[in-house]
Amino acid sequence: MSLWTSDAAAQATGGKVTVPWKATGVSIDTRTIEPGDLFVALEAARDGHDFVAQALEKGASAALVSRIPDGMDETAPLLIVADVLSGLEALGVAARARTDARVVAVTGSVGKTSTKEMLRDMLGDQGRTHASVASYNNHWGVPLTLARMPADTEYAVIEIGMNHPGEIAPLAKMARPHVAMITTVAAAHLEAFDDISGIAVEKASIMEGLEYGGSAVINNDIETAAILQSKAHDMKRRDIGFGEHGFDYVLKNVSIQGDTTVVQAEAFEKPLLFKINTAGRHFAMNGLGALACCEALGADLALAAASLGRWSPYKGRGARETIVLDPVETHLTLELIDDSYNANPTSMAAALEVLAAAEPVDDVGRVGKGRRVAFVGDMKELGSDEVPLHAGLADLPFVQELDVIHCIGPLMRHFYDALPDQRRGQWAQTSDQIDVRTSLDAGDVVLAKGSLSMKLGLIVDAIRKMGHPRSNA
Length: 473
What we know:
It contains 14 helices and 23 strands. By secondary structure, the protein is of the alpha/beta class. The strands form four sheets. The chain has a nine-stranded mixed β-sheet, with helices on both faces. It has a seven-stranded mixed β-sheet with strand order 21-20-19-22-18-17-23, sandwiched between helices. α3 packs across α5, α4 packs across α9 and α9 packs antiparallel against α10. The two termini are 34 Å apart.
């Protein structure tokens, strides 16, 4: 079944087709392109036009270009437009217009991708569901996600992110969601904003894309909730609040039971009990908001809660796995919490709280006592407050429950210096300078977290190489 015909794509973009073609997918990367994909030759770090020939050799059905690439003539299957990114945006708008899907858009300083994945699983159990891949949430990720959406989609989940003011509203207007969720507003990308209120205003602009009669699902527990509520009121959109102070979906109790989070809540004054297959109060909050989104979309709340109980985070987003250190003595293990994809003060605090609640195993390793061990890297884009925000991590009450904290990067040096001597592990400028193997032992629970540029993934890989993973899922 084709996703795009050359005629439909030409009509959507106003472009010129060289020869007729049909596409079953849309791709911007020749490394992951599939046979039948329409290759979009974006001009980013490198000019996508240089890779059109390679894409066609790999089986691409056609290429979206702004000029005929060198060495190629009009017998090649091309869709020629004035600007490739604008052409991709036009495809996204057309794909959104031709579907009757119920659409939810998710933004927030923390938890966007995890919440999107929760929604993908919950809605996917109730209808044909299309969702953003990985963190495709920017100026090309949102139109690409939309352009990939089949016409018969019943539910769509679109993640929308930002780095600077004015980015969210145009993407939200492209997605035209029926429900827009704001997971939280926190200190992230502060370099581009005067303060956290500015971030809240930008996050609230997702409501500008809401369809008539649409709903905004808002975290009522954050200090900027009033800014979000005011935006919903001004837009004349329904405001659904969630959290401990939620007035529609109220968080009553969160219980961490091993690797499971059990949540007691109320939905419009009716009891709501659900669990999540990983530990973390932040997952409970996001799960509650995601359930609110499902019901607002018209999905079955009870079925959604059951589906949520089977969800667990994936690589780099809080995924947990057991590393077996000895192929014979398989009880010699440590537990890894891979939260290495990104970090800001809110998500770092949440991750450290999860580690503090973890249960190490005693009497299995050289040390004898299982430990809670953290490897943490710099949190980027925090502006003028970056030093106190790093040093202030030492004041979090649950840090005293941690045994060893290894710090990576010049900013994390301030956290390291604020720690008591008995909790200080190693400090290094970069992840590849940390000695992982001698830092860990059987029975330990280990967290790796930092901004993506700090490459905490190297720490995760080094831990996995100490043995072999056995997924907790």
